[in-house]
Amino acid sequence: MRRILLLSVLLICFHWSSYSQCPHDPTIMPVNPILCPNESDTLWTQSYDSYQWYKDGNLIPGETNQYLVIDNTNYGLSNITVEATDAGCSELSPSVLVDGWIFVPPVVTSGGDYNFNSVTGVIEVCLNDTITFEFSSIYDSNIQWTADGNPLSGETSSLIEITSSDTTGIVNYNVCGSPKNCPNYLQCLGVPLYVQFVECATLSIEDNIRFDLNYRIYPNPSNSFVTIKSNFESFGRNYTITDQLGRIVLSGYLMSEYTKINIQEFSSGIYFIKIGNNNTFRLIKE
After folding, report:
1. 8 Å CB contact between 279 and 210
2. How far is residue 72's CA from residue 62's CA, in Å, rounded to a whole number?
3. What is the CATH number for 93?
4. N or C: which end of the chain has fewer CB atoms below 10 A?
5. Residue 270: other Cβ atoms inside 10 A
6. Whose CA is closest to 260, among 218, 228, 223?
7. What pLDDT is attached to residue 146?
């Protein structure tokens, strides 16, 4: 009877020891880090005899230190755990999610009266007019506008206003900035903004046979496209373009505030744009 009782006690002790946890509980710090695209961080656990780090449940070869260096590229959106061994007993830590910031590429929106010359890639603006560029709202820190690669003094906000007094010839504007959450992630606009101020001759009284200041036609002269700027009261009104012999070479309707007309196939010379019944403008095709 005594032998049976002793055997029962030994079995109970063995059963308890087989399913008991280690006396240590490893954890990972910092908890749930968020990484910027170009940055790294270090995960740490407490001091034990040995370590093995895991990513999404898979052993990470060679990562057997007390710490693990992580980056957004290799560890973003991964669950990280560490197995810590102390006095021969191994315990797995709770998982930590490594998150990361993702940003769309920077963009610029433009405002004002201008014509984009698809042949040269230049934004053409009438003299004495103004064009504005506004940088993506996401990139709201460390903003700097440049002209031909040179920083523009004082131009460190998201909006820049450019007039003919600011530049001569064709100027390449660009802008760089970083998100507030990742100030070291500096990004620049990926396309050039070529701007040139041009003479819009048909805007003067001398260049119009009959004119209405509600209309503007630019650039003039032009070798590719011209734009008719009108007010909303003119929407749906017809226009015709005639040569010096009075022959109609093109016609259409004003369907928005800016009507862009392709004149690339026109022969060089002088043409007349008639809008409605009372407005005629002279156009020079180069």
Report:
1. yes
2. 19
3. 2.60.40.10
4. N
5. 11
6. 228
7. 96
Within-domain flag for 12: no
| Measured distance CA(101)–CA(150) in Å, rounded | 30
Q: What is the pLDDT of residues 161-182, one digit of tens each?
A: 998 877 678 899 999 999 999 9
3-state per-residue secondary structure call for the chain: CHHHHHHHHHHHHHHHHHHCCCCCCCCCECCCCEECCCCEEEEECCCCCEEEEEECCEECCCCCCCEEEEEHHHHCCEEEEEEEEECCEEEECCCEEEEECCCCCCCEEEEECCEEECCCCEEEEECCCEEEEEECCCCCEEEEEEECCEECCCCCCCEEEEEHHHCCCCEEEEEEEECCCCCCCCEECCCCEEEEEECEHHHCHHHEEECCCCCEEECECECCEEEEECCHHHCCCEEEEECCCCCEEEEEECCCCEEEEECCCCCCEEEEEEECCCEEEEEEEC
The encoded tokens of residue 280 equal 């005629």
Residues 6+ apart with CB under 8 A from 215: 228, 229, 230, 234, 275, 279, 281
pLDDT of res. 185:
95
pLDDT value at position 118? 67
Alpha-carbon distance 111 to 157, whole Å?
16
The whole domain housing 69 covers 24-100
Q: Write down the pLDDT at residue 171.
A: 93
Which residues of the chain are under the pLDDT cut of 70? 1-20, 118, 167, 200-214, 278
Q: CA 82, CA 90: separation in Å to the nearest integer? A: 10
In the block, tokens 């910092």 appear at 30
Question: Cα–chain-centroid distance for residue 249?
Answer: 42
Give the total number of structural domains in the chain. 3
Question: Residue type for 260, please?
Answer: K
CATH number of the domain within which 229 lies: 2.60.40.3080
Q: What's the pLDDT score for residue 200?
A: 67
